[in-house]
Specification:
seven-stranded parallel β-sheet, Rossmann fold, 2 domains
């Protein structure tokens, strides 16, 4: 490793390379193609950044292309590579979808050594003849399990086909899919798999909790979470309409510490939301799996699964956002009894212990709150309260027997007895008067 990199790593407080960084370094430095598998948050970006930057010839043009699934991840990776590249004079530019394409074309005229971007925009610039590929020596496919699926698989393959034949193709991912398992058939035959997931030690202690709650009451749970001043979480949704409804609910209740991050927002609004979330001004960031894929939030305390993931791979990627680099983290899964049973079945093959938590006041606890005991009623104290609030001794029932004559007298004096009559009796009296 270059001395400039060693010194900067020490300045950042890095004591040693992570498992994926140590394994990938010699392979990429020697221009070999690899499939690197390691947990989310284990330093994969630095794993391909340092060795590839060391291979750059400063006298040539663009030599490395890094493909990312989202604009946010493209910007994030570009910043990391720019920081390290500046140490040795390597230039880096981001080319992401949604940004001004004319400005990107102007930046390409400066012939950056490294280009980081989304497949659609990169392919567009290549086809327009603005991004030259004759000097490309390496292509990195980050978050490969996501990019090598659907339409983006064809885009990635086209970019590779249009590039220099003498290049290395490097794939990095936390999980695999069918395409990655047969990656040699889709691309080139000599791709070496490096899987360090079993030996990686970067993950801190992460607790996986379940909070039993009906779907209609989930939104009301979120404000209760941020009663803890240290609480901050990415809140994951499966559907955009649920996310929008929940955000409207929070906004209507003037919860200013919540924001949303969606693919439908303008880039400037998305960047603002991420910045405010990183600084702590926003403590609940509502998002989806696509938008938050690969997002690196330093020291994120928690992840909330507002909607439980539908597959095992999605759960792994979500929870990988917290507990990075040895720090502790928390995952809170919201759902009813049926949802939680399905989640447990989904994670049967994973080493996760799901612990139920409860709200004691506004604090999450593993201790089930005791049922509220109702105060003893006034009747049980054998006291009565009159309309003015004063307490009287209840009147006991009479025990003296009343004779038949007394009953008849009382009935005659009773005002109720005078009012008693029937329509039939009234008609008899009327007929007698006529006669």
């Amino acid at each position: 490793m270059l001395e400039e990199f060693k010194n900067y790593a020490q300045k950042l407080g890095y004591q040693k390379q992570t498992a994926i960084q140590e394994a990938a370094y010699p392979e990429l430095k020697n221009h070999n193609s690899i499939l690197g598998l390691s947990p989310t948050g284990s330093g994969k970006t630095v794993a391909f950044t340092l060795p590839l930057l060391e291979t750059i010839d400063l006298n040539l043009g663009t030599q490395v292309i890094v493909l990312e699934p989202t604009a946010e991840l493209g910007i994030q990776t570009s910043k990391v590579m720019t920081t390290w590249g500046n140490l040795i004079g390597v230039s880096v530019q981001s080319m992401i979808g949604g940004a001004n394409v004319k400005r990107q074309m102007e930046k390409l005229k400066k012939h950056p050594h490294v280009v980081v971007g989304t497949p659609g925009r990169i392919l567009n610039l290549i086809e327009l003849g603005k991004l030259k590929t004759d000097q490309i020596s390496a292509i990195v496919v980050d978050e490969a399990d996501n990019l090598l699926a659907g339409d983006t698989l064809d885009q990635v393959r086209t970019i590779v086909d249009k590039s220099n034949r003498d290049l290395s193709i490097d794939f990095f991912s936390a999980t695999t899919n069918e395409t990655l398992q047969n990656v040699n058939r889709w691309f080139i035959p000599d791709i070496k798999t490096i899987d360090v997931r079993a030996i990686d030690d970067t993950q801190g202690v992460v607790t996986h909790n379940v909070l039993i709650v009906d779907n209609l009451k989930k939104a009301a749970m979120l404000p209760r979470l941020i009663h803890d001043k240290n609480f901050k979480a990415l809140v994951f949704f499966n559907q955009m309409n649920t996310l929008e409804k929940t955000f409207s609910f929070l906004k209507h209740r003037n919860i200013k510490e919540a924001a949303k991050l969606t693919s439908e927002q303008k880039q400037i609004d998305r960047s603002k939301a991420i910045k405010e979330f990183r600084t702590g001004k926003i403590r609940l960031l509502l998002t989806t799996d696509v938008t938050a894929r690969g997002m690196d939030i330093d020291n994120l305390p928690a992840v909330v699964n507002y909607d439980l993931p539908k597959d095992e791979k999605t759960y792994i990627h979500r929870v990988g956002r917290t507990g990075r680099m040895g720090r502790s983290g928390q995952v809170i899964n919201l759902g009813n009894d049926h949802d939680i049973r399905n989640l447990k079945k989904l994670l049967t093959d994973q080493d996760y212990t799901l612990t139920q938590v409860y709200f004691n006041g506004n604090v999450l606890s593993t201790t089930k709150p005791k049922p509220t005991v109702k105060p003893v009623s006034e009747a049980k104290d054998k006291t009565q309260t009159n309309s003015r609030g004063s307490k009287n001794t209840p009147v006991s029932k009479p025990t003296t027997k009343i004779s038949k004559n007394e009953k008849s007298v009382n009935s005659k004096k009773s005002p109720k007895s005078k009012k008693k009559h029937s329509k039939r009796k009234g008609m008899r009296k009327k007929n007698s008067e006529r006669n």
